[in-house]
Histidinol dehydrogenase (Aureimonas glaciei), 864 residues
Amino acid sequence: MQVPVRLNVATGDFEDHFEALLAAKREVSADVDAVVRDIIDQVRRSGDEALVALTNRFDGLALTPETLRVGTDEIEAAYRATARPTLEALELAYRRITSHHERQRPSDDRYTDAIGVELGSRWTAVESVGLYVPGGAASYPSSVLMNAVPAKVAGVERIAMVVPAQKGELNPLVLAAARIAGVDEIYRVGGAQAIAALAYGTATIRPVAKIVGPGNAYVAAAKRRVFGTVGIDMIAGPSEVLVIADGGNDPDWIAADLLAQAEHDAAAQSILITDDAAFADAVEQAVERQLTRLSRRATAEASWRDFGAVIVVGDLAQSAALADRIAAEHLELAVEDPEALFAGIRNAGAVFLGRHTPEVIGDYVGGSNHVLPTARSARFSSGLSVLDFVKRTSILKLGPEQLRALGPAAIELARVEGLDAHGRSVAIRLNL
Amino acid sequence: MQVPVRLNVATGDFEDHFEALLAAKREVSADVDAVVRDIIDQVRRSGDEALVALTNRFDGLALTPETLRVGTDEIEAAYRATARPTLEALELAYRRITSHHERQRPSDDRYTDAIGVELGSRWTAVESVGLYVPGGAASYPSSVLMNAVPAKVAGVERIAMVVPAQKGELNPLVLAAARIAGVDEIYRVGGAQAIAALAYGTATIRPVAKIVGPGNAYVAAAKRRVFGTVGIDMIAGPSEVLVIADGGNDPDWIAADLLAQAEHDAAAQSILITDDAAFADAVEQAVERQLTRLSRRATAEASWRDFGAVIVVGDLAQSAALADRIAAEHLELAVEDPEALFAGIRNAGAVFLGRHTPEVIGDYVGGSNHVLPTARSARFSSGLSVLDFVKRTSILKLGPEQLRALGPAAIELARVEGLDAHGRSVAIRLNL
């Protein structure tokens, strides 16, 4: 294999190389928009009939509207068939994710200001949510928990999950995780047709108000297209980790963390920043050694070769500014004083502090959410949370006295904005 | 003029008519995507050169890169030329919006759980924000305050405003409002070219991390297109109000409120729900009377005729479920006990309680934000707030003991998900 790109802040061309690293496009977005539009139109027009026909064609099934929904017995059977240690791990994850997300519930605010105007914000749950779960190898039970739990904690009353059953197969662990998380309905459909059904509804699947969960290019394009009719979460790109590590680490530990990210996807990205060039060498050698033992070697190797990077800085203090520009989905601070370094960094989806917090803990059982902003979007967005499943109504309440106090200023602003009827709506109440 | 559609819940075909009202498409989205893509490509490729050329062509100007930015002297002159009552109204609005939004700053959270794992959420401001302000008649100083103040309160360090100067003219009140709100930079550019400059940067305009503010179809398409490279706010549709009013109101007051919304745009929508058919008649007559006096009569008349609706219910309690389905941007509760009615309603961007709180107060000086979810999106989204200008980093910190406690569950989940390297990254630290 080839070693990944090595950058050193001390070299004159560092800025050019770093800019190129930031600008590298890791994902080729297939142009599936025309196909997706057609699929959505069909489901919108013909409901279950189109949904069933498309599902049977794409997934090699022979469903009817009656068999779209996964029965309670099938879900129970999957749960009961799950090995005890797996179930215990899922339940531990569920409990920890729930506890953490319960702290994210926003508080209502209601107050009266100095002149007697009542103001406030009231939060309410989104009524219903659709949860997309990919089929095949990317059908992860942990992602079911990560998407469903914040919705449940927010108070969403109905969670409808869709998951394609390619050739009839559903991952029983996904069903078990859905049962643990309290998902209300599960349908064996996927792709753009499933997104269309959730957005517009069919006779079998009632429409939802918001759709979350990862998917392939068709699913992503369908989500973009139905956005507005329903809410959507972020469109996730390939996963990434930035590890900032000093020479005090075991190179094998850091190599393992870089590879955990790389094994996700050939387009995943693992970046190491260190102030110790010899340590960087040792990590690269450890990566090469460990790679040979991985079941997903080809994927991890391609990711590390094509998108991996090792950046050597003169001083770890220099790494903060680079981290902010990278704005990584996952940021590991495997350094002597991680809190001090973290205080100087602003852009990261999630941070993992110290040598004993591998990012993988956050993927499963830490309690925080593993749905995080990718592709530098941590500069302006956040990981999935309870806030994604609630919305705020702002409150205003005036009496006659408050209207007399504020009305003239509103009338003046309406006047200069040329909005007569705005002014009149206040003036008429003040006999002006 | 034609009266608007009248619905009565007591009639057998109510549900069909109500569904049709909800489904009515008020906006024809022009297909400007190809043009916008080309404009963005030009600015991305040629920076200031393209930005200046496009601006000069579209806005009839003769700018150079040196004159793109509005000078401090020009801003000061606009501020000084603003009439005292206008300035006082803007400053009152500014103070009230600031006070209200200061209550929206989210709190960091950091805690240690029962087994010693440290978790948390840390909020930081988005570094830089672009604020789009339309030119011409829709160039509202109030919107400058509503977009800029939450960003300032959030701690955004740099706000770059763009506003097209068609034929060289800038609304001096927009400059004055920008000065009051503390906008850092103003550029006389608009359209898709301005959005491209903010997203990708040029020699004159440094790129921002997020773009907010309303605009025409070109601006909206450009925002959708640069989304991902930068964050964007919601794409605003035509404005709307739902007024729920009992027979105890002055019909003229309610008519004025319906018209204040209708004058915005021929695609705006004003809906009245009442339990009093005679009152409904009186409001409709008042609308007709008041219409004749409005400077924006044609717009208001078209909106009321094409999209206005009056719904008569048997009992006001029935209005809550209808309000939730309408999910209005603005909801006025002009009833005897507005708090009781509000308690039963879930979906609304902003609520205005009681007979003395016309929605217009919220447009200008109430203190809450007037950028609110339109087109039924209050089912899943919220008005603009400080939360739109901050982002959250989730925090996880384990020591060796916590890793021993949680590690085996993470390894088990990695195993069942087929992610070897994930498992290894934990196991290697536990000598497993």
